[in-house]
């Protein structure tokens, strides 16, 4: 996911939010101030139908599961996680590295001959870290799942067609010469998994991650446009003022870059297993956590984002955004977790995430 707020404005807003959150402590205890701020920030506001915040398993929820029929959230709901999918895909690629079947600094041409433009110059590491320079297919009109696409949201799109569209655009820079977030990279990563294993990347994620960890609320829907119940449904307002339900859409246009559905509990379990060393060797996990700057307090590793807290320390995880849903799923080194979902919101949720992260991890003695 990429933010829409200008960088300088973001930094200023985070500073102001930090000062406001810290001032909220006043003369009371830090923990009480933290809980009060979290409860306040978890409010949906007029621009969202639902907000779900989970910190260390404790839930703050506001709004409704379904804007049309109502019904309060209870934290059990499934929702689209968008680009948090990338962390699952990168984990499988890195497991293949641990197995000696993929080399991070080998070219993508080695595994996908003739598939990726300039593939002989682009490494697996650069694909996972968005330093390949590959253009983003979602920059083309009608190709973004962050935008209303009418009936096109139900059509199947193949990875080959996605790459064909992406390669109508010029590279952002020579491979390794910079950082530019591009969903096309993870369409390629999904194809890499399939080329090496002989199985769909979804099947590899299910077998290697979902089943061993018991993540029964997490799924890869492929062409199925539905979100399994209990579901958080979402809406958006079109330019002509109509409000439309955006819950159901065929996620093949996202594919390995963002198709997955999950729950806050499953995301916390996954991050515990990954960052706690249960899915990768220490050496490969260290490679995953080697980052380049993204801006606004974020750094990017291999399918993993680092967010630096204003009071010191860092959170590790990923954000995800697609039409109707914004998700942030992060974990601190001491095992504390934070998941934030915003449904039907009209922004990328960054400022709210910065506020809850500051309150959750800076207003505490632990």
Automatic annotation (TrEMBL):
Keywords: Carboxypeptidase, Hydrolase, Protease. It comes from the Bacteria. Pfam families: Beta-lactamase. SUPFAM superfamilies: beta-lactamase/transpeptidase-like. The keyword RNA-binding does not apply. Residues 50-335 form the Beta-lactamase-related domain. One of its GO terms (molecular function) is carboxypeptidase activity. InterPro entries: AmpC-like (IPR050491), Beta-lactam-related (IPR001466), Beta-lactam/transpept-like (IPR012338). Gene3D superfamilies: DD-peptidase/beta-lactamase superfamily. This is D-alanyl-D-alanine carboxypeptidase.
């Amino acid at each position: 996911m990429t933010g829409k707020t200008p960088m300088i404005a973001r930094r200023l807003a985070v500073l102001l939010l930090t000062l406001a959150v810290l001032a909220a402590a006043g003369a009371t205890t830090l923990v009480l101030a933290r809980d009060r701020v979290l409860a306040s920030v978890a409010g949906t506001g007029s621009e969202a139908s639902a907000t779900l915040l989970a910190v260390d398993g404790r839930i703050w929820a506001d709004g409704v599961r379904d804007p049309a029929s109502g019904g309060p959230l209870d934290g059990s709901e499934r929702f689209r996680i968008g680009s948090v999918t990338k962390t699952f895909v990168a984990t499988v690629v890195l497991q293949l590295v641990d197995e000696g079947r993929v080399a991070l600094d080998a070219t993508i041409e080695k595994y996908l001959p003739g598939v990726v433009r300039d593939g002989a110059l682009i490494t697996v590491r650069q694909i996972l870290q968005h330093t390949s320079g590959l253009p983003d297919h979602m920059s083309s009109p009608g190709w973004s799942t962050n935008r209303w696409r009418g009936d096109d949201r139900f059509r199947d799109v193949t990875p080959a067609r996605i790459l064909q569209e992406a390669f109508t655009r010029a590279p952002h820079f020579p491979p390794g010469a910079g950082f530019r977030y591009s969903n096309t990279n993870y369409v390629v990563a999904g194809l890499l998994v399939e080329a090496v294993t002989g199985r769909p990347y979804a099947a590899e994620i299910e077998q290697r991650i979902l089943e061993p960890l018991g993540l029964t609320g997490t799924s890869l829907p492929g062409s199925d446009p539905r979100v399994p119940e209990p579901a958080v449904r979402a809406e958006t307002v079109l330019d002509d003022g109509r409000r439309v339900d955006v819950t159901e859409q065929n996620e093949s246009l996202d594919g390995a870059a963002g198709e997955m559905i999950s729950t806050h509990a499953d995301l916390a379990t996954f991050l515990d297993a990954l960052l706690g060393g249960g899915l990768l060797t220490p050496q490969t996990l260290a490679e995953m956590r080697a980052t380049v700057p993204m801006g606004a307090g974020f750094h990017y590793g291999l399918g993993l984002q680092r967010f630096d807290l204003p009071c010191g320390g860092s959170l590790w995880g990923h954000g995800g955004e697609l039409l109707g849903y914004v998700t942030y799923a992060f974990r601190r080194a001491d095992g504390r977790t934070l998941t934030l979902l915003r449904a039907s919101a009209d922004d990328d949720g960054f400022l709210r995430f910065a506020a809850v992260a500051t309150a959750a991890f800076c207003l505490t003695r632990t």
